[in-house]
Amino acid sequence: MNTDHAAFTGSIPENYEKYIGPLLFEPYALDLAERINIFGIDSVLETACGTGRATMHLRKLFPKTTELIATDLNDAMLDVAKKTIGEEGITFQLADAQELPFDDICFDLVVCQFGFMFFPDKPKAFSEAYRVLQPDGCLLFNTWDKLENNQLINTANTIVTKFFEKDPPEFYKTPFSMYDENVLRKLMQDAGFRNIEITKVAKEGTSPTSEDAVKGLITGNPINNEITDRDPAALEKISKEVESEIIKRFGNGPVVTELNAIVCKGTK
Q1: 192 in a domain, yes or no?
Q2: β 255-267/194-207 pair status
Q3: What is the pLDDT of residues 160-171, one digit of tens each?
Q4: CB 89 within 8 A of CB 74
Q5: Confidence category of residue 9, pLDDT binned at 50, 70, 90
Q6: What is the pLDDT of residues 100-140, one digit of tens each?
Q7: What is the pTM (predicted TM-score) of this model?
Q8: Does the structure show a pLDDT above 80 at 97?
């Protein structure tokens, strides 16, 4: 994938937070927070925090005395997170999850909300999470199930692909690329994790309107860049067709769709 096209730049971070955040990420951010036993946890690292959906719930979950460092590789995403949830009790830091700028054995918990799919060197990212954890520390993360098991996003992808059959935008392939439980388990085991738990989790995502859903699916992620690079005029046409299909499948009102993801947990 062209990394320029895959960048969360321009208006994408704000559209991502406003339109995709509530629809796709809020249900699973809550789910991750609900799985954490806060007893004995004094320091938390979040990698690939994006616009801070999970960060917000982590800060609410833990007492103010718990250190929370939220990292991402993208300045613009961090800026939206700071603006949206504020910086009280949170240290936002630019960092690559494959080369964490922290000492060995310094966190009790590492959390990653839908981030591992984007790391080019996944074994290194898992090894880094293991390295910075305290003995008996925990890694908790989620990934999306396959695209076909997430109907709303698959609907958008099908239409986008139809417009560019010879050279289809490929961004959606990345977030929906880590659904094989055997692969996930091996990556964790190879990094040294034990007591591995892998669970498929279905949730319900809601967008107030079909228009908002389309804004998230088309302009709230880097597929927007891939479309405009191929044909700027196609963006509006694709958006209209995606909205029409969403109304056909989900009704002319709030869009409610089943979401499917995988939640993983392991101990150092």
Answers
A1: yes
A2: antiparallel
A3: 999 998 999 999
A4: no
A5: confident
A6: 999 999 999 999 999 999 999 999 999 999 999 999 999 99
A7: 0.94
A8: yes
Tokens linked to 239: 């958006």
Domain count of the chain? 1
For residue range 181-216, list pLDDT tens digits in order.
Answer: 999 999 999 999 999 999 999 999 999 999 999 999
Q: 45 in helix, strand or coil?
A: strand
Q: Is residue 142 part of a domain?
A: yes
The residue type at 250: F
Block residue for tokens 């389309």: 214
* Token pair recorded at residue 87: 């910086």
C-alpha span between 220 and 9 (Å, rounded): 10
Helices (H), the chain: 12-15, 26-34, 53-61, 75-85, 122-132, 151-163, 181-191, 210-214, 223-230, 234-250
Single-letter amino acid, residue 165: E
Q: Please tell me the predicted confidence (pLDDT) of residue 1.
A: 35
Q: Give CA separation, 5 vs 29, 71, 169, 230, in Å.
A: 26, 22, 9, 11
Q: 2 in a domain, yes or no?
A: no
Per-residue tokens: 31: 């789910």
CA distance 91 to 240: 40
Average the pLDDT over 260-267 and give the result.
98
Q: Does residue 6 lie within any of the structural domains?
A: no
Buried b (16+ CB within 10 A) or exposed e, 9-24: beebbbbbbbbbbbbb
Domain that residue 219 falls in: 12-267
In 3D space, the residue among 199, 181, 187 whose CA is nearest the CA of residue 265 turns out to be 199
For residue 24, give the CATH number of its domain: 3.40.50.150
Question: Which among 235, 213, 240 is positioned nearest to 152, based on CA atoms?
Answer: 213
Residue with tokens 């700028």, as numbered in its chain: 101
